[in-house]
Amino acid sequence: MTLRCFAIILFFTAGGVSLPAQYCADISYTESGGKLMVTASVNGKTGRFIFDTGAPCTLTHSFAEGMDMPEIGSVRTIDANGQVAENGVVEIGNLYTGGVNFRSVQAIVMEKGNMVERFGVDGIIGYTLFGDKTVQIDSRRQHIAIASDAARFGTDTMSCVVMLEGTPVPAFEIGLGTTAVDTVMLDTGAPNFYDLSEKTYARLHDSGVWQLLSRGRGILSLSATGLESNTLKYRVCIPSLSVGENNFARVTAQTTSGTESRLGVVFLRTGIVTLDYPNHRLYYASYTGKPLDLYTKEWNVVVTVMDNELKAGFVWESMWNSLDGGEKVVEINGRRFDKVDMWEAMSTGLAGLSGDEAEIVVIDRSGQEKRLVIKRE
Hints:
By secondary structure, this protein is mainly beta. It has 3 domains: 2-151, Cathepsin D, subunit A, domain 1 (Beta Barrel); 155-293, Acid Proteases (Cathepsin D, subunit A, domain 1); 301-375, Pdz3 Domain (Roll). Helices cover 6% and strands 48% of the residues. It contains 4 helices and 31 strands. A 6-stranded antiparallel β-sheet has the order 2-12-11-23-24-13, with no helix packed on it. Strand 7 and strand 8 (84-97) form a beta hairpin.
């Protein structure tokens, strides 16, 4: 299953008062479950945070509890799966990370019991910090820099894409084939290369810019408000996708119920990305300097975690005659499972799927065990 955090379009005041004229926070990160994980302290309390350009700064209820932070209002949020929640907004006095102390940063506080707390995550470092700053992400070094300006990064040698104004997330146009375009956000909380919004799929499904690979139904992702609803998704292969002057071949993508298409963590693995927020510019320097073939296979049954059990959460069309979706998975390649920890399963590959085939045992609707071979397609 994919954990997706917020992809929320909210307008907050960016933090950063009382900073020196020139500064740069140097932050190391680790990648876990397709997330960039960083360490930061909030008003002196150290925690583990997801670094997410598609979300506002956010604190879990348990992490924020007991802190003296004034609540300055509330907001209606829409997460990466299009689900709505109401959350309080606080002002963080001091947010320290990478050797720099950022002051007066606005943040959302999640409601009590939000399932994100099960993952050992204390919150999100997001776009309410970035509005007047430049952010560079270098995945080969697993390094993030948050700086006062773009001059220190040598962006004159990089490919440049203009970001849209009027939105706090880095949003810009990409090319699909030779004639079509899609507006995407760079969302470092999304684990894939490209997620195709349902509205873009509807707009371009007859345009010939992609090949339809399959249809699927079920639940693929978990967002800040919980599991997405049971959905019908489409999987496509795009022969050519361009980001500025940079071309990517045979990009596989799935539709998403989120409001916008997204480039995610796999895009970061292809080059250095610099986001100049004040000047609305994205700079990109490819690691290889040549077009990349990004075709990937997908399991025709996606094993997910729901209610601390493994489930046949999402089923692609080739397996519709064998599974309805939602069946409990009790064995994978000879290993039996009962109760499982959701974060362990998502971050460590607990299910152990490798290669191009696997044998699973599910409990069917009659309560009997049913043995099946699933494949990457």
